[in-house]
Amino acid sequence: MKKRFFSTLSILLVALAALAEGRAKYVFYFIGDGMGVNQVNAAETYLGALEGQIGIKELCFPSFPYVGLVNTQSATNGVTDSAAGGTALASGNKTKNGALGVLKDLETPVNCIAHWAKDAGAAVGISTSVSIDHATPAAFFSHVPKRSMAYEIGAQLPGSGFDFFAGSDFVKPQNPDGGPDLYAQAQAGGYTIARGYKDYLKKAKKADKMILFQTEAASKIDNSCIPYALDRTKDDLTLQDITRAGINFLMKKQGLRDGFFLMVEGGKIDWACHANDPTFISELIDMDNAVKVAYEFYQQHPDETLIVITADHETGGVVLGRGAYELNLKAVASQRMSMVKLERELKAIKEKMGDKFTWAEGKKFLTDNFGFWGDVKVSDDQASRLEKAFNEFMEKNDPGRLSGTVKRVISECAMIGWQSGGHSNGYVPAFAIGVGAEQFHGRFDNTEICKKMAKAAGWEVK
After folding, report:
1. Is residue 462 situated within a structural domain?
2. Which range of residues forms the domain containing residue 146?
3. DSSP summary character for residue 441
4. Are residues 202 and 336 in the same domain?
5. Strands, DSSP E only, in 72-202?
6. Closest C-alpha to 449, from 280, 287, 307, 293
7. Residue 4: inside a domain, yes or no?
8. pLDDT tens digits, residue range 14-48?
9. Who's near 354: CB < 8 A, 6+ residues apart?
């Protein structure tokens, strides 16, 4: 009898302790696609360089109190892709590269933290700076053997029943069978579609479930992503807008839901690193600005909020230093546009000027937009390579010849080294603050992150 009493008392004490500690009612999951340790270090070191110091100027999320290192390999490869990496982060299951929301047999579907949150009564949002059917966001709501199945992924979105989605657009909205397109399917599933943040503000109050896309004008230019932070105009949708809208809409569901789960992906850190474009630094700073929106929310609800930031893998094999024991990341400050916009601008100028677009004009353009021969000193060899690439661009009408040389010269001047244009198996970081954040300390596998978050929130892992 005495043993049973103490057993019951122990259970009661554990329950009371858990109640006293509280739970994470509001859970943010930020994923910097391609964001390795050195990408974070580069951004902070760059900001320090702008202030003339050797060292770092702290960003918001790398300053969170709990920090860990994460292993990223997939079930079948030492180097994961974003689909397998996203599936591990979302569901806690390893899978084959290229697969989304299924085990490595490519058939068995797996539920993820978004489903666990919904089943527990929380409102759910899935968002990204790229298309909503891209690998990382798709890992949270779709189950397909191949990430290239963009239409099929988009068609599964309404069936999730999640409250909020945001991204650039659907990349393949048309129905291959000639039936309703993905926009019509989403609307039939109860979703209101807003085009741009201003349109969201107009429609959000009356919407039951929401999809926020960029404007149709922006999608006509590129529906696969919102513009790089470096290329943005005042009318473009931003990751801060998306985060702010996500919080606003999910809080609107408070009368019907118990807290919320919001995943936000900074998808173009990866894209810039694939291109070996130093633009990744401004993308990482841009994601930090989105995290600041969540951090402001945390400051208002410190005893109920958990924010976790991590990555699916590292991209590019970024190294800070190219042999000489020095860095010159300040050179990146002279870059006014991404390589994507550079190629677009070069085409437009050539179409307008034809053969009048001479090397003298090209040199001035590069000085104005990349600082070459100005704040960024280039060697005779680098100048010769730039001129040769410009002439090849004019002759072959291939702007990639010039953009490829431009990004290599910027990296050389900044002392940024690149191992490849693909992914690596480098550790990625995890940063956390709030309720349950103490779990994110030390070294752990990517499959553990969503389970740790669910534990903090009291959601059942199914």
Report:
1. no
2. 24-315+422-457
3. -
4. no
5. 123-128, 164-166, 191-195
6. 307
7. no
8. 333 334 458 999 999 999 999 999 999 999 999 99
9. none
User: Do 242 and 367 sit in the same domain of this protein?
Assistant: no
- Averaged pLDDT of the chain: 94
106 pLDDT exceeds 50?
yes
Q: Can you spell out the DSSP letters for 116-127?
A: HHHHTT-EEEEE
Do 158 and 206 lie in one domain? The reply is: yes
Residues 332 and 258 both lie in one domain:
no
Helical packing angle, 280-300 and 37-50, nearest 10° = 90
Residue carrying the six token digits 């599964």:
156
Same domain, 102 and 129: yes
Q: For residue range 407-427, what is the model confidence (pLDDT) as tens digits?
A: 999 999 999 999 999 999 999
Are residue 255 and residue 376 in the same domain, yes or no?
no
Whether the CB-CB separation of 157 and 186 falls below 8 Å is answered with: yes
Q: Is the pLDDT of residue 81 over 70?
A: yes
pTM: 0.94
Angstrom distances, CA of residue 440 to CA of 110, 306, 307: 24, 11, 11
Beta partners for residue 442, in sequence order: 68
Q: Tell me what pLDDT residue 254 has.
A: 72
pLDDT tens digits, one per residue of 366-412: 999 999 999 999 999 999 999 999 999 999 999 999 999 999 999 99
Task: Please state, in angstroms and rounded to a whole number, the distance separating the CA atoms of residues 88 and 72.
Answer: 9
Provide the pairing of β-strand 260-266 with 305-310: unpaired
* Rounded percentage of the chain residues whose pLDDT exceeds 70: 95
Residue 182 exposure: Cα atoms within 13 Å on the Cβ side: 19
Is 7 within a domain? no
Give me the residue label for tokens 């009898």. 1
**Which residue in 122, 121, 181, 129 sits closest to 157, CA to CA?**
181
Whether 254 maps to a domain, the answer reads yes
Claim to verify: residue 106 and residue 203 sit in the same structural domain: yes
- Which residue type is seen at 395? E
Structure tokens, 260: 């919320």
**Structural domain count, the chain:** 2
Tokens, residue 168? 């650039």
Tokens of 162: 């999640």
User: Does residue 217 sit in helix, strand or coil?
Assistant: helix
Which of 19-53 are b and which e, b meaning 16 or more Cβ less than 10 Å from the residue's Cβ?
eeeebbbbbbbbbbbbbbbbbbebbbbbbbbeeee
